[in-house]
Design brief:
five-stranded antiparallel beta sheet, single chain, disordered C terminus
Length: 697
């Protein structure tokens, strides 16, 4: 299938005369006639080559991905046969895409390096914000899907002008009337009343920003002599043929470098637009879905929405636009100084740019499975409704011979007049062939059913019985996917990140960049230090992917080793180092592909810092117990001392009391003796007086 009836076969128009003998250098000017001739000639060669070499591949890939199967009929009848479509390549592509896109578009996989780590962090934040503005994940997803279905996926980068809306609100007060209020000295006075009114102010500001855009491979034409997966190799040219609306082209009128014709010419171009074989390829995609759509037709009555063919030509030193293959709308040097397109490939072919796709390598197996399954269903249909043989001359309508519940067939000799044709069951082992085909597909693409699709192979697999067998299958799938991711990192992701850094440095307004840096809330850096920093970006998606599977299994052992107190002590003593807990936490989240909405590690409050200065609860308990023990010992010691003191006091007091008692006893004895002596003296004198009296008498 080549050109349709309405397509225009491009004819090369090589340069003639002096122009054909002049070799232009990068800094030389090109006339519009030269640009027009080169674009038309190169497009004719590229279109002719792709039509015969790869457009049939693209249509075949769409047929396989959409699992289209034309309706079949039994020979000589309009009775339908089984025409099931088997989604083999669809399964492989859609099971591989989540692993690719999630890994390649994960910002945690991107690392920016510079002399100043804060400057690198600021550059990373800035580039990631710009990637979000151009819907980076969706562009990468489309490019990856194109590479899996067609072999190559194209991403275009560059700088674009855009208008940014700045919306601000202002308030003002307006007098609405007056009222009277009583003043203690002035009496009733008039007081004005007012109300606040708010006003919206919208300003448009023209800015520049980098962009990343997916381009359909069907719209792209590469130099047939390109022998490398990289489009930036020397001597290449690259063209993109698209349809753009007349109003979009009119907006470019007056833009420096563009030469857009008047409205009447644009209207004529839209009414008599040129076509190409790529329109047939795009049309086929809808035909495989039983729809009809022609990309060369305009389904609108608005003249501004009608489309015009635009061929964008790019080489390392020149860019040009050709409208309807007649008018050169742009002819300027290439400010990017390279072909500003990147290509992702699935399986490259040595010395060629067009790569193999999953649809290429799995085509035979999908068609084999489709034929076996449909053949099995046809045989089942024949078994359920077997053909019959009737003797010639028997007047039985054929429709009455069809087997159905309750049918009555009248015949004189049933055994001789009617006979059921025996159907051979030759496809009863069809599932074995389908299983073998599924296994071959898995070996080709590396996407095992259990690891990629979440379901085991139809025929069973003994490796699924043990955890080691499952891990082996998953590991093999991860290795195949990681290889694709590693290639995509080197060819697209890292170049895109570093290209965005280069575009910002070369084209962004330095005043706007400086204002953003100075107003940053987290980093307070000198704008010159950031803008002059030599920043390099790397992508570690494949490395992180390889570490995920092994990390989850070895995490318990790793945690026990790393956080062993003896290891931490030796690390501090010998290496003067400690463990970065934040990095360890990040490794855990990376291993499960999850990032908490709110960070788990947060700065401590003042109260928490004071609490951290306190000893641990166990130490506190020990200290309390020791303090209680000390208090108890002190109390016992004090009691013992008090007892000793009281004992000594009692002993001293008793000794003194004993002495006093002895003194008192001596005094009492002395006084008693004195009294006794006195009494005895008194009694002796009285007797002497009595005797003298008696004698006198």
């Amino acid at each position: 299938m080549s050109y349709n009836d309405g397509a225009v076969v491009p004819i090369p128009e090589p340069l003639v005369g002096k122009e054909a003998k002049v070799i232009k250098m990068p800094g030389d000017e090109w006339s519009d006639d030269r640009m027009k001739s080169i674009i038309r000639t190169d497009f004719a060669y590229a279109e002719s080559y792709r039509t015969h070499a790869h457009d049939w591949r693209f249509r075949n890939a769409s047929e396989l991905y959409l699992a289209w199967a034309g309706q079949r009929y039994w020979d000589g009848t309009r009775v339908p046969r089984s025409s099931l479509g088997i989604y083999v390549t669809f399964e492989q592509v859609e099971s591989m895409l989540p692993k690719l896109v999630d890994s390649l578009c994960d910002p945690e996989s991107y690392e920016f390096f510079a002399d100043n780590p804060n400057a690198a962090a600021l550059w990373k934040e800035h580039v990631l914000l710009q990637l979000e503005e151009c819907h980076y994940r969706e562009q990468v997803r489309l490019a990856c899907k194109s590479s899996l279905v067609y072999g190559n996926g194209i991403l275009e980068y560059g700088m674009e002008d855009y208008e940014d809306e700045i919306i601000t609100f202002e308030s003002s007060r307006k007098r609405t009337g007056q009222t009277q209020m009583f003043h203690p000295q002035q009496g009733w006075v008039n007081v004005p009343q007012s109300a606040s009114s708010y006003k919206r102010k919208i300003e448009l500001e023209k800015k520049k920003r980098p962009y990343l855009r997916w381009r359909s491979l069907i719209d792209c034409y590469v130099n047939p002599n390109c022998e490398s997966p990289s489009l930036q190799s020397a001597g290449n040219f690259f063209m993109v043929r698209t349809y753009q609306t007349a109003e979009d082209l009119k907006k470019l009128r007056g833009t420096p470098g563009f030469s857009i014709p008047d409205d009447m010419t644009l209207e004529q171009y839209s009414m008599s637009k040129t076509t190409a074989n790529q329109d047939v390829t795009k049309l086929s995609n809808e035909l495989f879905r039983y729809n009809m759509w022609n990309p060369a037709l305009d389904y609108t009555g608005d003249p501004g929405k009608k489309r015009i063919e635009v061929i964008e030509y790019t080489n390392a030193f020149r860019k040009g636009w050709l409208l309807n293959r007649e008018h050169v709308a742009y002819n300027k040097p290439n400010t990017y100084r390279e072909i500003n397109y990147y290509s992702i490939h699935y399986a490259d072919v040595l010395d060629r740019w067009h790569a193999l796709a999953i649809t290429d390598v799995a085509e035979g197996e999908q068609r084999l499975q489709q034929a076996i399954i449909n053949g099995r269903i046809d045989e089942l249909a024949l078994s359920l409704h077997p053909p019959m043989i009737k003797r010639r001359g028997v007047t039985i309508p054929p429709y009455q011979l069809k087997t159905r519940p309750g049918v009555v067939i009248e015949t004189e000799n049933p055994e001789g007049d009617i006979k059921i044709l025996e159907v051979q069951n030759i496809t009863q082992q069809a599932f074995i062939e389908v299983e073998a085909s599924e296994r071959r597909v898995q070996r080709i693409t590396g996407m095992s059913d259990l690891a990629a699709l979440g379901s085991p192979t139809s025929g069973g697999n003994s490796a699924n019985r043990t955890a080691a067998g499952v891990n082996t299958q998953v590991g093999a799938t991860q290795d195949r996917v990681r290889y694709y991711i590693s290639n995509s990192e080197a060819e697209v992701i890292e170049p895109v990140l570093n290209t965005f850094i280069r575009l910002n440095k070369r084209f962004m307004d330095p005043n706007v960049a400086a204002a953003w840096i100075m107003n940053h809330k987290k980093y307070q850096l000198d704008p010159l230090e950031v803008m002059n920093a030599r920043v390099t970006a790397y992508c570690y998606a494949s490395t992180r992917m390889a570490a995920k599977a092994a990390f989850l299994q070895t995490f318990p052992t790793i945690a026990q080793v790393i956080f062993n107190p003896e290891l931490l002590q030796m690390l501090a003593q010998q290496q003067k180092m400690t463990i970065d807990v934040e990095a360890f936490e990040r490794a855990i989240w990376d291993s499960i592909s999850y990032t908490p909405r709110n960070p788990i590690l947060v700065p401590m409050s003042d109260e928490q810092k004071q609490a951290m200065q306190q000893p641990p609860p166990a130490e506190k308990l020990k200290a309390m117990i020791a303090q209680m023990q000390t208090g108890t010992d002190k109390s016992i010691h004090d009691n013992q001392n008090m007892t000793k003191l009281i004992t000594e006091l009692l002993k001293g007091g008793l000794k003194q009391h004993q002495k006093m008692e002895e003194i008192d006893s001596d005094e009492r004895q002395h006084f008693s003796q004195l009294m006794a002596d006195q009494i005895s003296q008194d009694s002796g004198g009285a007797q002497g007086d009595t005797g003298a009296t008696e004698g006198t008498d």
